[in-house]
Design brief:
heterodimer, A: alpha/beta, Aspartate Aminotransferase, domain 1, Aspartate Aminotransferase, domain 2, 2 domains, 4-stranded antiparallel sheet, B: about 150 residues, Sufe protein. Chain: A, 4-stranded mixed sheet, about 20% strand
Chain lengths: ~400, ~150
Amino acid sequence: MNIDQIKKEFPIFDEKIQNNDLVYLDSANSSQKPKIVVDRINEFYTKQFSNVGRSVHYLAVAATNLYENTRTSVQKYINAKDKNEIVFTKGATEALNLVANTLGQSYLQEGDEVLITELEHHSNYVPWHFLRKSKNIKINFAEINEEGEITLEEIEKKITPKTKLISITHLSNVTGAILPVKEITQLAHSKGIIVVVDGCQGAPHLKLDMQELDCDFYAISCHKMYGPTGLGVLYGKKKWLEELPPYQGGGGMINEVKKDRISYGELPNKYEAGTMATAQVIAFDQSIKFLESIGIENIMKHEADLVEYGQELLQKNNSVKLIGNPKNKGGVLSFTIEGVHPHDIATILDEDGVAIRAGHHCCQILHDKLNIPASARASVGIYNTKEDLDHLNQSINNCKKIFNL
Amino acid sequence: MNLKELYQEIILEHGKNPRNLRKTEGFNKDAKGNNPLCGDNVHVYLKLNGQKIVEDASFEGSGCAISMASASIMTDLIKGKNEHEAKEIVEDFLGMIKENPELKSEYLSEDEKTKLMCLSGVKQYPMRVKCATLSWHTMVSAFDEKTEEVKTEN
């Protein structure tokens, strides 16, 4: 696998960013886009555009086929049993809101408990909080250990007879911990508990096999998978998607509408009300082709090498403190520097062309637990190299110099 | 303006050892501010005397070097000013941070202007402007006795 070659597929790396070569270490936030994805959006709008699923003219039929092709590609990529288990949404956030909302309408009852973890992104907490307010459900938190991991034992400990649902991240966007989702699901199912997975960080970096994981729902963010913004995927087991009520009402999701009654459409239309992000869906097919052309095993190996290298580098850098040290770790290096606020770190690194994120990364619960207001985070993607991490380290040294450390 | 000018000695010094980082005893006005995007927060306390002059100003909170230095310098120079003067200084400061090349207020001494101008570097970093302005908006809110928390504008 030739990373230089792969990097050339991303036009942004030809650009000078404030006179610097771009060292992009913010892929956990959003990944850069390969040319084939960008070109596909342009091509669709230029030569093939039409709305999907409505009209009978040639362009409409062709666009509908392209749109449905992506659904099939996603199904295969994540090894879902059925094409209709793939629902497009405007993002992983909407996917998680859809699950919480529809389960809240028809499944969860007052007093039921939902178990989430201290690692969760706000997207996998706030939608459940809505149900805490509206339905009086209770939210419990599985706690992280010293290494920033959530263990199977901790999950088991927090399950009560009232636990109806477990909603967990596949890969923490702060500590990088990869959760034992398959084992958690086995345990949960043995007790009749539903499992929802926030796959925002998992999907771009891990091998996905829905039938093996066996979770009930899995939320995907396409813009973190070298795909367009404004698009997410919700995988849901067919029995759930058939049983649950619709999320939004509008065009496309209906079967028959009369003054006194409405019946809803079949899957997956039932959950795709209104005009969808058509161009993005069609372009996302290219993102999957891109990922497949490299191979997920190669991606995982490359990113694991990078993380190991980066971890060693930062561990040797005194005054840098890494957050979490999980055994199974994805491509995330969160850190603090004693005496320098993360926002100052990010501004100084930016001046050197090193793009990282600073803040609480939408994980205030976790930062409260760690007793820090914010952290700096470098995260890798397929286009990163060890040189990028060397740049990061040099720029951190520059930061220390400015702050007289 | 480059990075070195933003992170110059005076900012680093105030950032590291902020003045008035405490809670004024017997304060009679206060307000809270936070920056929801990054989780920074500040609580500003003012003690006005019978003549409505700021006898003491202080703050509590956490944040980056820019926000701490800004609150530190602000609470220092606001002492001895009345509400009208303080608000004019705030307007002048906010104008300078966003667009004006210099400070104009007659209520600021040359030395105070020099100190405040050290923060002018944030102009080049639009995402950081709110770090410099949070404590100032919060102080206005304290004067106005607003109870809701100040949120930084973007």
